[in-house]
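Weekly modeling sync, notes
Attendees: AB, CL, MP (scribe)

Item 1: holo prediction request
CL wants a bound-state model with zinc ion before deciding which constructs to order. AB pointed out that an apo prediction alone won't tell us much about the pocket. Agreed to run with the ligand included and paste results into these notes for async review.

Input as submitted:
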Amino acid sequence: MEEYIIKYLEHIQSDRFDYEVKMVPCEVCGRMEFTVVREEISLGQGVYGKYPVQACNHCGFLMHNPRFEKTFYQDFYRKYYRRMTHHNTKPMHEFVENQVVRANNMIDYLKDYLPERGAVLDVGSSSGGFLIPFRDMGWDVYGNDPDKEHVEYGINELKLPIEFIDAEEMQLEPNSFDLIIIMGSLEHVYDPNIILKKCRQASKEGGLLVLEGRFRPLGLSKNFFNHNHHRYLRKTHIQLMMIKHGWQPFIATDDPVCGVNVQREGNGYCVGRAITIPTQSELDVVIEGGLKDVPSETIKEFDDFDAQIHLHTSKEIT
Ligand SMILES: [Zn+2]
């Protein structure tokens, strides 16, 4: 195991130092050639360290690579991450109120596309605040989340049908949802491809998928890139991920779809409609047709962001 990985595991107070670590293929196009975009990133608590972010040379997808084995990510979210963030979690009701506000804004934004009634799935729903306005409108609602405390709050206090489960393990009725939403959690999960595959099977034909990702940094890139995001769904790849799994995106925007929210500035949204799932070569045609990012341009983009911030900060000091 490389020195920097040992240091990282020490930083997160890992119980184990024998996780398998290896380079994995691009999660969008499956290729194996990458360019390093950043090495030093945020590891939380104001600590920065080596944890490489790489761009796929073929489609430009930004992801952490190498990756740990699956059990690491389970341990990370069930033990280490919780320990590290325990002191700054908001009270549950505030968090839920914020979700309800965001959901109402989203419903307003999508009103021309949503059926009057239907069934909605929220993958990574937390306590399920996004589902409340839908339930109030007479929709069937269902959510799931790997955070036990949040799920229990949703079930017991909000009386919502939420399941405590990793999204990769969810069992869904085929052809049953009019709307599926994944508000940011796809950047944290172990395998977004398994999840989107299951979602596509569970979506009705013509059903909608809404994804939220992080399009641009608000501060320095070393904070935008952090060890809690295993991939970055920016404007290009949030669309490619949808297309790959059989949704035709018709909105990809950094409009505040869920309302103006300081903490979520820089986020973007993609909305697509379920169509036929393309073959690998059909997906390649889309990428080669120009829906891709070029690693050297992405590096320059982030260098420019950083230079602007530095310029700003030095101006404030003088
Ligand atoms: Zn790729």
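Recorded for review: The chain has a mean pLDDT of 94.
Action items: CL to compare against the apo run; MP to circulate these notes.
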